[in-house]
Each structure stands twice: as C-alpha cells, then as structure tokens.
C-alpha cells in the first residue's frame, strides 16, 4: 500500500481516500520559535540518548519511507496513535546561549530520526505529518494495520 503526502497541497492520499494533513513547524526560518527560551529547545532523535544535539525543527523529509505498525499513545500530542516511519534527515546542530536557549547554528550536522504521522491538539509539530481529524487517523491506522498483518509493505511518498 502506498500513502502519498504533498507538503504544498496538504492532502494525504491512500487508496481511494484523501485526508487533510499538514506539517507546520516552528523554527528560525518562520521566526515562530523563541531563540532565547530554554524550554523551546528541541533535541535531535539521533538514536543515542546520551548524545543530545540541539537543532531547529524541520518539516518531514521528502522521499519514499517505510511505514510501521501504529502504536497507541496517551500523550495529548500523539494520542490516540503514532504511526512510525523510517524517515530521517540531516539537521544542523545549534549552539546554546548562557541561558540554555538557542544561540546560533553550527556547521555540525546530525541525523535526526523519529518522524511519523499522528493527530495532535497542536497546530504545529516537530516535523511529523499531522492528520487533522481523529477519525481520519483511526481510518488510516486500520488500513495500515490490515496491510501489515497481511505481510505487505506500507510506504509513504512525501513530496514538496
């Protein structure tokens, strides 16, 4: 099964269904993330919990990614399901200022993982694709589960 998402159009398509979705991130490009507030700092999901690297969030990377079995979640930002993918991208590491907020970008880059699809009460994400309604998310989860249970691969094609 192939799921398609276009950043420009904001529509996720699977089989004969379409769902409103978005990937709005707050960062230094759109000046929506406070640079000097330590609580606004985001750390890359590098796969090494001891190697925390601050970065400014980026939208879900374009490309073709594998989708895995949806996971139940309780968090208000990820409930009721998080749909993991193997999407990843290089992100620029930021230096922090004396108060723990962002200072400036460095030349160092690190691979960031952990991108997926989910519903959220927030309008923005840290780079995931946000499905706009819980009903659409539940429908998508059912389609993905059914496909994976039949030992078939689910892919996500993300375009600009």
Please give the count of helices: 1
Fraction of residues in helix: 10-25%
CATH third-tier fold name: L,D-transpeptidase catalytic domain-like
Mean pLDDT: 95
Round the Cα radius of gyration to an integer and report it. Answer: 16 Å
Instruction: Please give the alpha-carbon distance between the first and last residues.
Output: 21 Å
> Would you identify the regions where 5 or more consecutive residues have pLDDT less than 50?
none
* Major sheet attributes: 9 strands, mixed
CATH architecture: Beta Barrel
Instruction: Report the count of strand segments.
Output: 13
Shape: elongated
Order of helices and strands: EEEEEEEEEEEEHE
* The number of domains: 1
Structural classification: mainly beta
User: Hey, roughly how much beta strand do the residues contain?
Assistant: 35-45%
CATH homologous superfamily descriptor: L,D-transpeptidase catalytic domain-like
Tell me the strand order in the biggest sheet.
6-13-1-2-3-12-11-8-7
- CATH class placement: Mainly Beta
